[in-house]
Write a structure and sequence with these properties.
Radius of gyration: 17 Å
Order of helices and strands: EHEHEEHEHEHH
Structural class: alpha/beta
Distance between the termini: 48 Å
Helix content: 40-55%
Strand content: 15-25%
């Protein structure tokens, strides 16, 4: 089993990476393979809703890290998306990335466990968690929690490591992710199938 962890910060080895690494270590200790996917500092375009991906086998027409990630996601079993907190909200880079990933390739994520984590110097953390998790709940993904909201605090990686509660939250998240993945795998091996969805009904409020 494998979990992909996305670093939504332009700083590849900063505070968000430090938190993700703690989760990855816990998963590895529980025999779950991991990969930290770095968004990096290059620009990422927003989704324009062009729908070209509908005819491109789950590929976005903008050929960048989104398409690299979705090919990895196809065979992954779980996900963690991490972001720094900017002005009390999620990194715009990560949200642009996630909008395009989920719009073009939602089928690759359905029923797979996912978690959101954020890193902040001080505040804005719960507000930043919410938009990340909305991508999960619209796509029928089990949301993995911890023993507190999934956040760490610090202005540098060393300060994050000194946030002992935050580091414990990351480890607990890793343990919960490993447990849920094993439960799902056991269910599959016992013949339990995924739910059979109804055809989607689309409505609006115009009468």
């Amino acid at each position: 089993m494998k979990v992909l962890l996305v670093n939504g910060s332009s700083n590849s080895n900063g505070c968000t990476y430090t938190a993700l690494s703690e989760i990855a270590k816990t998963l590895n200790d529980n025999l779950i393979e991991t990969e930290i996917f770095q968004l990096g500092a290059e620009p990422l375009r927003d989704c324009t809703g062009c729908k070209a991906c509908r005819n491109m086998d789950h590929q976005c027409i903008i050929d960048d890290k989104v398409n690299i990630f979705t090919q990895k996601a196809k065979n992954a079993d779980g996900f963690v998306f991490g972001s720094p907190v900017y002005y009390a909200h999620t990194s715009g880079r990560l949200l642009s990335f996630m909008d395009r990933v989920f719009y073009s390739s939602g089928d690759y994520f359905r029923y797979k466990p996912a978690a959101a984590i954020v890193s902040a110097r001080r505040a804005g953390t719960t507000a930043a968690l919410e938009p990340i998790m909305k991508h999960f709940t619209i796509n029928q993904m089990p949301v993995v929690s911890s023993n507190y909201w999934n956040m760490v605090h610090g202005n540098t990686p060393d300060e994050v490591k000194q946030d002992l509660e935050g580091m414990q939250i990351m480890r607990t998240l890793g343990l919960n992710m490993a447990w849920l993945l094993n439960c799902i795998e056991t269910g599959k091996n016992s013949g339990i199938k995924y739910p059979q969805p109804e055809d989607k009904i689309y409505t609006n409020f115009i009468r």
